[in-house]
Structures are given as C-alpha cells and as structure tokens.
TrEMBL record:
Gene: CPS
Pathway the protein acts in: Terpene metabolism; oleoresin biosynthesis
Cofactor(s) the protein needs: Mg(2+)
Species annotation: Picea sitchensis (Sitka spruce)
Protein name: Ent-copalyl diphosphate synthase
Record domain Terpene synthase N-terminal: where: 221-427
Record Gene3D superfamilies: 1.50.10.160, Farnesyl Diphosphate Synthase, Terpene synthase, N-terminal domain
One GO MF term: terpene synthase activity
Record GO cellular component, one term: chloroplast
Domain Terpene synthase metal-binding: start-end pairs: 498-620
Keyword Magnesium listed: yes
Keyword Amino-acid biosynthesis: no
Annotated PANTHER family: ENT-COPALYL DIPHOSPHATE SYNTHASE, CHLOROPLASTIC (PTHR31739)
Pfam families, per the entry: Terpene_synth, Terpene_synth_C
Alphabetical UniProt keywords: Lyase, Magnesium, Metal-binding
Length: 761
C-alpha cells in the first residue's frame, strides 16, 4: 500500500503558513527574542567563568560526614575535639523539625542517617542538649517509618553504616527502637554484603567498602588498611571514612585531607571529595545536550584534556587517581572523549563485565539505572570489531527496557524528575537516529536545576545543575528557532517562485527537507550550509519525481543530462516546459552556490559541484531493473556533504577532494546513505522491504555495519588530511538519513512541530 502524503508534516506546513499571518504574534515573539539575546552575553560570560574556575568540584555539605569529623578526638591527647569548627557547623545547621540533612528534600533514610550521626557527635562531647533532644525525638518518630520509603532512595552504604551507628547509640543508652523487627532486614543486607567481600580481600584490594569504613571500624585492621589509602590521604575520598581512620590511627595524611576539607567548607564536609572528574564530565554532558556547547569550545576541551590525563585501561572513577573505577564515570568519559577525538580503548569495559552481565563496580550483584543508561549511551560509539561494546549495548538495552516495562526507572544515585523520560527517549531514538536540535528540545524539558544526588547523604552539584545553563539554552533555542522559521519561509517562497510546486513536489516535502537540514546543522553561522543542504535535497526530490513520471521517457532524461553536462540550457529547447523549468532551477542554484563558494573558499568550486551533480544525474537517468536500482550506489549524500562543506567553516582544497582519504570516507557515507534512503523509501511507500522481512533485515544490518565504519572514520585517533569538520559533516549527514529511515511520519511531524514552531519557556 502506497501512502499518498505525509499527513503530519503537511499539517505543520499548513500551520506554519497560517501562523505567519499573525503579525501581532510575530512582533511579540521577536520582542521576547531580542530581550533574551541581550541577556545571553551575560549568561555566556557567567558560564565561561564557571567552567574556567572548576577545580576539585563544587558539592554541598553532608551533615553525616561532618558529624564523623566532629567525633574525632584531639590528637594531642586532650579531652577536646580535633575539629571544633565541625561541631559548631552541626549546631548551626539543625533543621526546624530536629533533623539534619538536605533542607529542600525529605527522604526518611537520608534524614535518619544524618540525624543519628549528628546526635551521636553532639552527645559524645556533651554539648547542645536541646538539639540532641530534638534530634532524638525526630529519630523516635521516623525510624519506624523507614520501610515506607522505596529502597531505590537508600543512601549509599546505609546497610553498613546504619547498624554501626545504632550500636553506638545503644552503648550511649539513647532511647531508640533497637529491636524493631523491620531493622533486621538492614542487618541481613549488611551480612550479605560482607560475605561478598571477605575481610582478607578488603585489606588487600581497593573496593567500595573503603568508602564506608566507619561502619566496619571494629572489624578491620587499620594499620593494614593504610596501604589502600588514596594519594590525597583519604579512604576512597570519603570524609567520614577518613575521619574514622584518623581517630583510629592518628595518620598525618588523613589529618591533612580533613584539614583541607574543613578549611574549604568552614567546618563542614561533603559526602565525597574531590569530585573533579565527575563534575567536569557531567557538566560537559549537560552543556552539550542543552545545545550551547559551541559557546564554550575551549573550556570543554580543557575539561576533557583534564579527564584524559587520568584515563586508564580500566576506566576511571569520580575523582582523579581513584583506586576504584566505576562504569558510570567510565562510560561518560569514554563517550565524551571518543566523540572529541581522544584515543580511548573500549577494553576498559571488560573491567565491569562479570559472566554475561555488566555492573557499576567490580564485585557488585545489582545494576543501577543511570549506570546502565550511560553505558548504553557509550556503547553506541563502538568501532567495528569492538565486541565488548556490542555486548554492552545489547545487555543495557535489554536491562533498560525491562525496567521501563516494570515501571522501575528509578535510580540509587540520583533523584531526577526527568530520568524516566530521558531513558525512554534514548531507547526510542538510539544515537545513530538522534539529531542535535531534537535532542536539545527534549532535554530542555528534562533538565532540572534541583536534581539531587544520592551518596551516603543527599547532595547537590551546583556546577552540574545550574540555572544559568537552562536560561541560556532556552534563549539560544528560541533564537535559532526564529532564524529557522525565517529560513523555512524563504525556502517555501523559493519553491513556489521556481515553479517546483507545479512539478508534483508537495509543500510538506519542502518542510521535511529543510527540517532535516536544520536539526542537523542548526547554528546561525551555518545558514549557508544549511540552506544549501535543504535546497539540494529539494531539487533532488523534484528531479526524481520528474524522471520517474509517466510522461518522462529515456530521451528526456538523456537530454536533461546532456544539457547539464554541456552546462547549456539551450540544449533543453525541445524539452517539455516542466523539464526546462526544473533545469533552469538547478542551473541557477548551482551557479549561486558557486558564487557563495568563491566567497567562502577563495576559489572557483563550480567544477566540483557540477561534477557531483552530473554523476548523480547520470545515475538517476539510467534505465535500471528494480534489482539493479536496489543495488546501485547513490551519491546524493556526497552532494549534500560537499556543498555544505564548501559553504561551511572549513577550507576545502582541490588536492583534498582528490585525496584517497576523502574518497574513502565519501564512499562509506554514500553507501550508508544509499541503504538508509532505500529503507526510508520502502517505509514511505507502506512496505517494509522489496522482498519481505529477510531483505529488510539485510538492509538494516548493512546500514548498521556501515554506520559503524563511518563512526570509526570520523572518530578514530589517526592522522588524516580530511578536516575534522568535514568528517563530522559526513557523520551528520549519515545520521540524518538514519533518522529519516528510523522515524515514521507521525514522529517526524511531532518533531517538526516542537523544534520549528514551539518556543521554549
């Protein structure tokens, strides 16, 4: 069954034309955009300052960790605390209800672990009895309610540290429900975790338990553990764990680490420090997904170069020189580093594979949603032959789909309101099918300034989740959208004035052609390249319609090709008027691009453009059987890439175009896009393939393989005379074809509506 029209895209086209008549709406929108544009300079400067000022990571204070530091007795043997400023911080930061913790988010277990530690610290030094009593009242009320809360929001290491704190409270004879039946579940979880990592292993190899040593202080040999101390003096960057170690060993390196932290935080301490790699990676990720990375290219490069210094063949952790690596940070680092041209090996992910599963940390038995989500994103940047990434892609996709089906898209590391939508979007639109403007439009809706992370206590990352980013992203998106709407109006006017509407080319096809270019290269300074892409696509569609028409015979096609080859419109004098009009439009367009190319490249590019068009026209003019047509290699993508590249930012020399490396990447691009265009054509015509599911699967398999080769050609860390911008443009065009083949008309129509016609507020 053949579909006659793209109903969804056509609806958007009609809506666009009607909306342009509302002059009041246009003036109001332009006024708003002008206001946003004036604010953007200030926002950009603010973000630049933030990125340039990144050091060891900005992270909120943890009452729990501060309490453990406050518990340390003076190392000189006096009966005073070693860190009186930490005790004062506890006194100054108790909440109205008697608890300690994040003042803007109430989670029972988080408040309990913070409050219990603070009460014990204050009681130990026998100060602030009023606060102690209020804290005890809170604990008596809420400890029995712990089971009412979902396990996904349990603080990290809770099953290790909570039982130890309860034992301390019992020794101090605090009035708490020690024998409550529901507490046994937590003690059982502690015993299970301890069985997985025997004491001998704990003392010999770095593990996540180093982060929670305060819960094991009576079970470990502290002198033996000192050999597992991190370079900065901490135990896996945990102030609480390190404070406990200091109390047990009086180690000067522990003291140095805690002195630095309490000085920085005026007596307080975060739940983990530093977080330098984590902060840089997640900040770059957010800025890129919000569509504002082009303003901060040098800052992003600096951040990634910093991360790359600490990359290892086993991955990385959240802080430099971490003895324990995790799949979350490793995945984020791998994806960002590879996409920016750094040489990283996929073998790092072998470290996180056990049997046929992947885990966040070595030795874990359960996966987390965000860890698997970021591994899923990273796995899609695989090169051919990287089997570990293919295994990771299959495993994580299945894991996330199961969690979605079970309505369990929660995470133990972060409380993010948009996480469910993020994961669902990533599953629906894999990276090959993703497009920058669509990604940004979706992520602007999902990004939250108030995301809360879960460590041993709740914490926030003010440089990762920052209001200025989203304000800048919204303003930038609206400005780009306004430019795109103006360009689309001009494209439609050109289409009508050129008489292309009389050749059977529908307006919705014009909208879609422009849309595919705009979502791929959206930047304002890339307008010439974007419009060249869109107009080239429109004319190729018009020529295909003409060549395949009932009244277009072989001699008409040959005449059209001959006239173009001779670059002489007079050769069309015996052709139908429709053919003359089409030839005239193509002739003028190539001439116009050639003039623009002289400005952009400083040389005549007309020969290169005409040669590509001539080759494409010859291919389209051939009389082929269906089987031959299915197997022919189109050069449509090459026209788009080369024209956009000529009118873009890179200098394209004649020697480059004839270089084998350029020919190689263009061949891969043409092959991939030819396969994807056929898949898209079959879908548009209402059939899956020319000969059933088997052929359909073969095409998709070849397209996937081709995309892998294209990704390698673009991101492989190897010298090539082909400019990186040109290589990336090949991938951008390939992904555009993939998107068109992947999405149905309704999905494209929805994206046209949201990206081109709906401002963000």
């Amino acid at each position: 069954m053949k579909m006659s029209k793209s109903v969804e895209v056509q609806h958007c086209a009609v809506q666009f034309l009607s909306s342009t008549t509302d002059q009041i709406e246009i003036r109001e929108r332009n006024l708003q955009i002008s206001t946003e544009a004036m604010k953007m300079k200030s926002w950009i400067e603010t973000v630049k300052y933030i990125l340039q000022s990144m050091e060891d990571g900005e992270i909120t204070i943890s009452a729990y960790d501060t309490a453990w530091i406050a518990l340390v007795p003076a190392l000189n043997g006096s009966s005073e605390p070693q860190f009186p400023s930490s005790l004062q911080w506890l006194i100054n930061n108790q909440l109205q209800d008697g608890s300690w913790g994040d003042p803007l988010m109430f989670l029972i277990r988080d408040r309990i672990i913070n409050t219990l530690a603070c009460v014990l610290a204050l009681k130990t030094w026998n100060i602030y009895s009023l606060g102690v009593n209020k804290g005890l009242s809170f604990l008596q009320t809420y400890i029995p309610k712990m089971n009412d809360e979902h396990d996904a929001h349990t603080p990290v290491g809770f099953e290790i540290v909570f039982p130890a704190l309860m034992e301390d409270a019992k020794i101090m004879e605090l009035d708490l429900p020690y024998d409550a039946e529901f507490l046994q579940k937590i003690y059982d979880e502690r015993d299970l975790k301890m069985k997985r990592i025997p004491m001998k292993v704990l003392h010999e190899f770095p593990s996540t338990l180093l982060h929670s040593l305060e819960g094991l202080r009576d079970k470990v040999n502290w002198e033996e553990l000192l050999k597992l101390q991190s370079k900065n003096g901490s135990f896996l960057f945990s102030p609480a764990s390190t404070a406990c170690a200091l109390a047990q060993t009086s180690d000067t390196n522990c003291l140095r680490y805690l002195n630095e932290i309490t000085k920085k935080y005026d007596g307080g301490a975060p739940n983990v420090y530093p977080v330098d790699l984590f902060e840089r990676l997640w900040t770059v990720d957010r800025i890129e997904r919000l569509g504002i990375a082009r303003y901060f290219e040098s800052e992003i490069t600096d951040s990634l170069e910093y991360v790359y210094r600490y990359w290892t063949n086993q991955g990385i952790g959240w802080a430099r020189d971490s003895p324990v690596k995790d799949v979350d940070d490793t995945s984020m680092a791998f994806r960002l580093l590879r996409s920016h041209g750094f040489d990283v090996t996929a073998e790092a992910f072998n470290h996180f594979k056990q049997d046929d599963q992947f885990f966040c940390f070595f030795g874990q038995t359960k996966q987390t949603v965000t860890g698997m989500y970021n591994l899923y994103r990273a796995s899609q940047f695989l090169f051919p032959g990287e089997s570990i990434l293919e295994e990771a892609r299959v495993f994580t996709k299945n894991f996330l789909e199961e969690k979605r089906a079970e309505k369990q898209l929660r995470d133990k590391w972060i409380i993010a309101k948009g996480l469910k939508e993020e994961v669902e979007y990533a599953l629906k639109f894999p990276w090959y099918a993703s497009q920058p403007r669509i990604d940004t439009r979706m992520y602007i809706n999902q990004y939250r300034v108030d995301d809360v992370w879960i460590g041993k206590a709740l914490y926030r990352m003010p440089i990762v989740n920052n209001k200025t980013y989203i304000e800048l992203a919204k303003a930038d998106f609206n400005i780009c959208q306004s430019i795109h709407r103006t360009e689309l109006h001009g494209i439609i006017r050109w289409y009508r004035e050129s008489g292309l509407d009389e050749l059977g080319l529908r307006q919705d096809q014009i909208v879609k052609s422009y849309f595919l270019a705009a979502i791929a290269i959206y930047e304002p300074d890339m307008a010439s390249a974007r419009l060249a892409w869109a107009k080239s696509a429109v004319l190729m569609a018009a020529i295909r319609i003409f060549f395949s028409g009932e009244n277009c015979f072989a001699h008409h096609r040959r005449q059209f090709l001959d006239a173009f080859t001779r670059w002489d419109g007079r050769a069309m004098r015996d052709s139908p008027n429709s053919a003359k009009r089409l030839f005239s439009c193509l002739f003028r367009m190539v001439n116009l691009f050639s003039v623009d190319g002289v400005v952009a490249q400083g040389r005549d590019i007309s020969g290169d453009l005409r040669h590509r068009w001539e080759h494409w026209l010859a291919s389209e003019a051939e009389d082929l059987t269906d089987a031959q047509d299915h197997e022919k290699l189109g050069t449509e993508a090459e026209i788009v890439v080369l024209t956009a590249a000529f009118l873009g930012r890179e200098t394209i020399s004649p020697d480059l175009i004839s270089h084998p490396d350029f020919s190689s990447i263009m061949k891969v691009t043409n092959t991939v896009c030819s396969l994807l265009r056929r898949i898209a054509t079959y879908k548009e015509e209402g059939c899956d393939s020319p000969s059933g599911t088997e052929e359909d699967d073969r095409l998709k398999r070849r397209a996937e393989e081709g995309m892998g080769h294209l990704v390698r050609a673009v991101y492989r860390h190897q010298y090539s005379p082909v400019p990186s911008g040109v290589k990336r443009l090949c991938l951008v065009v390939g992904k555009s074809f993939y998107y068109a083949a992947h999405c149905n008309n309704e999905e494209v129509g929805n994206h046209v509506e949201t990206v081109l016609f709906q401002p963000v507020y």
